[in-house]
Backbone:
């Protein structure tokens, strides 16, 4: 079969705030091939990612993403890799291309799986999808009281692991950070898995991050996530040597090289990959293989919908020992409504990927409709993009 | 003074081909502050870079570039660095942001220099702008005969150094590549500096690149440029050890980390930075300082206008020993006409940056007018961008 059409749907909450909550808008991709429909989702700026799909060519190495995708043969996973490789050269100078392509690549796996009647994880070579322990991923509250309440809420909802991140953490005093951490631990209880996400706040300042290591040890945090900018591999490496707490990072990786370099030079205990940014499921699986070889734990990065969640778990679905899995606990309604189903924890508090074909979760046109953003892009006398019909 | 306005002008040739010729379109930035006008140029997809300036916010770490720029105080180079640092966190998840910001950052230096009556290189701490030896940067011809003629043309125009790149090189047989290289050397003569640009064609295939090392040695090439993808640092490192020819690379760097990592892990002899991609002049100067410390030669990457050429030479203007400088020999007319003046070789065949304030070269509204692309971007019921007036 051939790729006949690719459509982008920009969805948004009516109001988007400057909170570090990535579920406030979404970019859903619908791909048609051989009479089948596949879905994907970019974890990226919707408007900019759409522009990268439709933009006029600037030269041979700065072509729109569409040029590497439309009309291409799609008969096997090898075809997906071939298209991805062509894109790397065709759109070498188009920085946004990796983010745009990520959702398309997911949709290719989905459509291929649906055509074959196979789940994606099986096409990746896994024999089964192992249960994962979801951690409730949430933002720090504006104050310790709110953080305590949120942590208690996650425990009441059945979670044994939580991650608190962003918000005021790292932006004020050491004492304020310590209060936040103790509130999170108190709400979670002494035995739960506590993860902490600094959201790159210390940039490349190893000392500023190191000042928080004792308090992180005190609350028995399992990891400190993204202390530094995405490319600051050496700073990760320097901090890794300073304390006993494992580092986590990698969500900013927009290609396999970046994830590998973070592993090799930053020595994190956990490598976190967002399939909606790294170029999709294929490159994420390469990182998972590399992580296994290097003794690093692979974890998905997901702060959006369960369509994105399914895609981001596929690459490590078959790794029984890579157990922890990010799970957005309170996404905005757009992220819930856009998918036709949800991946819910079972009685053991664990989640398992669907055994249905493709991603096992589709986008819901009716669910998306209330959030659909009207977009029009015109250049060089042509209309390059208008919001397509959901029907 | 404060940044009052930033305008983007997308310029294009009437026809854009898939040749590896980056001068076929341009994105010019006009920045107004305190009654002064500064100019910059992004070496990037114009439409996508504009979209990254105006896009709706997705969340606190995925904001449009405009949010970090408009209304900001601009009194010193430190203010420019502060704005750049804020952008890194505010637009952390907006991949295109670095390309968009690059032209804005140049325009900040330009406007600051014009307000102070100082050239940019002096604000960077250099006492003088040393002459550079320009190399004529051209594409390989479709066949060796065309390459020979182009090389002879460059010599006739007074160039002592040429770079041939892209086109058929690396895409066919070893014999065809050897023929191209010998044609270039023959046209240049035995004493000229011959540089070869592979345009990432071997991706991460060290063996494929290594097969060309003997023929490169035979024609006495000074460097082999971009054998691999921009992030393939280890592959650069592996090839560096395999032969005596120096490697060159770095034009794909969209932050200082990438350039430093290429130097540290790829061991190139030459680090090539495009100020229109790495975030502007400030980060490029950081790379130049790093290159000096590591004994690596800094070279500008420029395949567009002389406005971009001026910006890209500023960061190493004061480094007397870093002599070679990329100089586009046959850019498309848009790249010539958009600037109000050109940097021409003197009687010694050398070029020197203007001593006028700022970049010393401004964009020419009248020169840009015939190439101006009409663009309109609408989303969420608002017009986010329409092509601004050149007046």
Residues:
């Amino acid at each position: 079969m051939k790729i006949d059409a690719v459509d982008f749907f920009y969805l948004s909450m009516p109001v988007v705030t400057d909170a570090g909550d990535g579920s406030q808008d979404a970019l859903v991709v619908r791909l048609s091939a051989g009479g089948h429909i596949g879905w994907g989702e970019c974890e990226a700026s919707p408007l900019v990612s759409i522009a990268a799909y439709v933009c006029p060519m600037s030269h041979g190495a700065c072509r729109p993403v569409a040029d590497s995708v439309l009309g291409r043969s799609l008969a096997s996973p090898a075809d997906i890799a071939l298209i991805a490789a062509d894109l790397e050269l065709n759109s070498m100078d188009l920085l946004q291309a990796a983010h745009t392509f990520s959702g398309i690549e997911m949709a290719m796996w989905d459509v291929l799986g649906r055509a074959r009647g196979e789940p994606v994880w099986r096409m990746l070579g896994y024999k089964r999808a192992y249960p994962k322990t979801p951690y409730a991923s949430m933002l720090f509250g504006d104050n310790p009281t709110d953080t305590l309440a949120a942590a208690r809420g996650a425990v009441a909802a059945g979670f044994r692991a939580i991650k608190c991140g962003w918000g005021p953490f790292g932006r004020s005093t050491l004492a304020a950070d310590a209060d936040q951490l103790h509130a999170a631990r108190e709400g979670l209880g002494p035995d739960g898995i506590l993860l902490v996400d600094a959201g790159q706040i210390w940039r490349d300042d190893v000392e500023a991050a190191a000042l928080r290591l004792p308090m992180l040890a005190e609350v028995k945090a399992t990891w400190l996530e993204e202390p530094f900018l995405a490319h600051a591999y050496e700073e990760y490496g320097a901090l890794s040597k300073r304390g006993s707490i494992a580092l986590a990072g990698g969500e900013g990786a927009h290609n396999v090289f970046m994830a590998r370099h973070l592993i090799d030079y930053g020595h994190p205990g956990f490598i976190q990959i967002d399939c909606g940014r790294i170029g999709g499921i294929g490159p994420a699986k390469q990182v998972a293989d590399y992580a296994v070889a290097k003794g690093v734990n692979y974890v998905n990065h997901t702060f959006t919908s369960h369509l994105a969640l399914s895609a981001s778990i596929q690459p490590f679905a078959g790794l029984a020992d890579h157990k922890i899995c990010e799970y957005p606990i309170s996404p905005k309604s757009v992220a819930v409504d856009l998918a036709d189903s949800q991946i819910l924890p079972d009685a053991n508090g664990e989640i398992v990927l669907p055994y249905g074909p493709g991603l096992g979760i589709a986008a819901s046109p009716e669910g998306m409709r209330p959030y659909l953003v009207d977009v029009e892009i015109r250049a060089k006398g042509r209309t390059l993009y208008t919001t397509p019909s959901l029907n």
Remarks:
- Chain B has a mean pLDDT of 97.
- Residues 306 and 342 of chain B are 6 Å apart (CA to CA).
